[in-house]
Amino acid sequence: MKALKYLNKYFVKYKYRLILGVFITFCSKYLALEVPQLIRKSLDAANDYNNGIITDLEVVKGDLLNNILLIIGAALLSGFFTFLMRQLIIVTSRLIEFDLKNEIYQQYQRLSINFYKKNRTGDLMNRISEDVSKVRMYFGPAIMYTINMLVLFIVAIFKMYSIDKTLTFYTLMPLPVLSLSIYVLSRVINKRSTIVQQYLSKLTANAQETFSGISIIKSYGIEPKVMTEFGSLADTTKEKNIDLFKAQALFFPLMILLIGLSNILVIYIGGLRYIEGAITIGVIAEFIMYVNMLTWPVAVVGWVTSIVQQAEASQKRINEFLEVKPEIVNVNETPTPINGTVEFKNVSFTYDDTNITALKNISFKLPQGKTLAILGNTGSGKSTIISLIARLYDGDSGELTIDNTNIEQLNLNNLRQSIGFVPQEAFLFSDTIKKNIAFGEENAADEKIEQAAKDAYIHHNIINFNHGYDTYVGERGVTLSGGQKQRISIARAIIKDPQILIFDDCLSAVDTETEEIILSNLYKISKDKTTIIVSHRISSIKNADSIIVLDKGEIIQEGTHTELVNKKGYYKELYEQQLLEKEI
Ligand SMILES: Nc1ncnc2c1ncn2[C@@H]1O[C@H](COP(=O)(O)OP(=O)(O)OP(=O)(O)O)[C@@H](O)[C@H]1O
């Protein structure tokens, strides 16, 4: 129950609803327990008349009518209170589920990139959906049935005991067996349903991957192999499902068997007691009703125990994520406007998951409004420099300053808002092109969106789509080429009009002609903005104010294009090689 303690705050938050729920449950069950007594009285009255103890038929009829009206009234009121009880307790559990999901979602938003690298998306989704659902069962059904059971038990046993102790003992005897058997069966059902869930996840993942990679599968002609794999997975899933249903099928027969046993005991022992003259005939009927009323709550004890165990396991998994401290935190709530002078002073950085030292003693200064180009082989650390500027990671040693202030002291929102970042791999949301461009600038006017698209040299493509800027892209929309995606991603950065523009090798999928056009547009736009361009092509970076060349995380060359082409080294070699490729 340790993990579930985390949820106590929700009990406090919804205490009034829950207390009222408990009270109403009590009222509902108390009224329901009035019915057996009234039935006993009615039967005894009829029996007394038959045995000549009461001779006036009208009195018996009056008693019966009175009792029938009371039974109807108690049943109606009890039903109404049961409705209120569900409204209060089950609705509260839904409210708590909503709060908990929001809490986890907000935590997901706060967590750093590193967290997302260490944990799989499926797992993140599972904890916020499946696990929260299991925790909800603890707040809702588990609490409701426990209160139900307690009220029924205490009141019914009290009533039964006051009528006949011996019969009470025999009536209750099979109930612990019932509870234990249901508990054992619930555990088997839970175990099997977890296995079924795992197989369903595998099946979904397999199908999803097959559909995503359908063109590869078809082009390699491996459909039969894929189908066999899927078929055998589906077969195993079916078998696991059948195992589960076999266990589930036992649930009600087991309950009915045990209720039957209790009924037989009541009839048998009750009959003997009646013959002895210890009880009236009505008591047997009253006890049979109690047995039937108590059976479900008793069975539920076993079920509730396993619900609580599952909720505990799920909350433990949720707590693991809720307790993670975001690595990147905003230490400065006061706004810190950004102008855009970026300086690295001996900055080193190692990725803790791979232990790769991506940057070693990097130093450079990029004054506000200037353009820096970063060049280097793959894996030399270019993207890492950019990640540090956007504060997706914090450097390990040295200092990174923006406008002469340590980046960690800047207001994180201001910093990120002042950066227009075009990543290496363009990501578009499943939405319209318009919304994708206006992503960081939601209220941008249509003219502004169009201008950004023109600057990114994508406007002419967009207007050729049937729905123009309202064309849906992504999973259910049109498929864009890699170059088109990159250009929409560029338009998205431009529209923000940020102080710092970062282009991480984002023109790799466009041809050199288009690249020329975009670059000349970008130079105009980024005139007074600090700009960082990462590229493998000399043509993209030759106009930059300064260029740094990276190799294995270190700066090996630095200067302007003219300086570097006149110096022996990586830059000159690459330049000559690319010149040659152009001529060929
Ligand atoms: N998220 C990460 N976690 C762990 N290691 C990483 C991560 N990103 C990069 N690395 C490693 O850090 C080194 C530098 O990577 P980086 O992405 O900065 O290189 P790059 O110069 O941008 O390469 P490319 O031109 O291929 O994009 C590489 O060895 C890479 O394997």
Q: What is the strand and helix layout of this fold?
A:
Blueprint: H1 8-13, H2 15-32, H3 34-50, H4 57-110, H5 113-118, H6 121-163, H7 165-172, H8 174-212, H9 214-219, H10 223-276, H11 281-322, E1 342-351, E2 356-366, E3 371-376, H12 382-389, E4 397-402, E5 405-406, H13 412-417, E6 419-422, H14 433-437, H15 446-455, H16 459-462, H17 482-495, E7 500-504, H18 512-525, E8 530-534, H19 538-541, E9 546-551, E10 554-559, H20 561-565, H21 570-583
Parallel strand pairs: 3-8, 3-9, 6-7, 7-8
Antiparallel strand pairs: 1-2, 1-4, 4-5, 9-10
The structure holds adenosine-5'-triphosphate (ATP).
Main location: membrane
Protein name: ABC transporter ATP-binding protein
GO molecular function: ATP binding
Keywords:
2 domains; ABC transporter transmembrane region fold; alpha/beta; 6-stranded mixed beta sheet; binds adenosine-5'-triphosphate; 65% helix; Rossmann fold; 584 residues
Quickly describe the structure.
The protein has 584 residues and is an alpha/beta fold. It is built from 21 helices and ten strands. It has helices at 8-13, 15-32, 34-50, 57-110, 113-118, 121-163, 165-172, 174-212, 214-219, 223-276, 281-322, 382-389, 412-417, 433-437, 446-455, 459-462, 482-495, 512-525, 538-541, 561-565, 570-583, and strands spanning 342-351, 356-366, 371-376, 397-402, 405-406, 419-422, 500-504, 530-534, 546-551, 554-559.
What does this structure look like?
The chain has helices at 8-13, 15-32, 34-50, 57-110, 113-118, 121-163, 165-172, 174-212, 214-219, 223-276, 281-322, 382-389, 412-417, 433-437, 446-455, 459-462, 482-495, 512-525, 538-541, 561-565, 570-583; strands at 342-351, 356-366, 371-376, 397-402, 405-406, 419-422, 500-504, 530-534, 546-551, 554-559. By secondary structure, the chain is an alpha/beta fold. It has 2 domains: 3-322, ABC transporter transmembrane region fold (Up-down Bundle); 342-583, Rossmann fold, CATH 3.40.50.300. Strand 1 and strand 2 form a beta hairpin. Helix 2 packs antiparallel against helix 4, helix 4 (57-110) runs antiparallel to helix 6 (121-163) and helix 8 (174-212) runs antiparallel to helix 10 (223-276). It is elongated and about 125 Å long. The protein starts with 7 loop residues before the first helix and ends with a helix. It binds adenosine-5'-triphosphate (ATP). Residues 117, 351, 353-354, 356, 358, 376, 378-384, 424 line the site of adenosine-5'-triphosphate (ATP).
